[in-house]
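Journal club prep, notes for RB
We'll compare a predicted complex against what the paper describes. Inputs for the zinc ion case:
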Amino acid sequence: MGSRTVRARGFASATGIVLVAAASSLFALPALAALRIVASTPDVADLSRIVGGDRVVVETLAGGDQDPHAVPIKPSFVARLNRADALVVQGLGLEDAFLPALLEAAKNPAVMPGRSAYIDASLYVEPLEVPSSQSRVQGELHPLGNPHFNLDPLAGRAMARAIAEGLERVDPAGREAYREGLARFERELDARLDEWKTLAAPLQGRKVISSHQDLSYLARRYGFVVVGTVELKPGVPATPAHLEALVEAGRRDRVDLVVHEIASPEGLPKSLADRLGVPLASVSVLAGGLPGTSGYFDSVEANLRSLVGALREQGAPPG
Ligand SMILES: [Zn+2]
């Protein structure tokens, strides 16, 4: 309904058109008034879409193939945050490398930490590997504990619950819709958990070395053991002495697998796997990072398939 039409039809019908337009916008209110959500990562974006349904429009900051500890800041992020009705973060410091500076520039008090439109998906997650106060001063990337809980699908359930409660807080009129959205997410998750348990069974009791300290929650869920990381500490690169110690530990502990995180360089994990004579598997710490994935569920599954697939490769008798 352009202004050209209005002019052509003259004042009387133009008024009619305006009234019709006003009336139809009233009926279309839920869509027009959709909450503008900014999600820091693809994982919390997907969960927000599932829980929020058509009451929300979600924009994401980090890409699935990026390292969440090193997301490049773009001016467009500031604009998105400035007009956001709510911000959903994965939390536990995962976004500390990029979000605080963006929030300061965005000047939107409603979505600042501690405010009601700042929705922290880690609220109901019990953090693993919370460092002691001494190790915190060493500049590592997990100062509040390990923030990579999203790889464990049961943490996904806790995240969805925190998101549903946050959306309800920001938009109380949507209470029923968000509760239904959460129930929909939980039904879909429950339908997959048994399947994933079966899929992950070969991981039980296996020993892995990962490039970054990002598998702890997944390992606990599916019964494998992370015996070390290529990084000295989260965000602190390996030293030659550390790599030699890893090779030694890998041989002694009969490590089955080295795991590489797709957003980090493959070189060191690959050479470690070669030296240990074990396969290398790739995982993504963010949804949508592995080929063919886009949402939370298919990303959880793709990581499991990648780990199990690599073990199968190892299971093949040497030629
Ligand atoms: Zn990390």
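Talking point for the session: Residues 199-314 form a domain with the Rossmann fold fold (CATH 3.40.50.1980).
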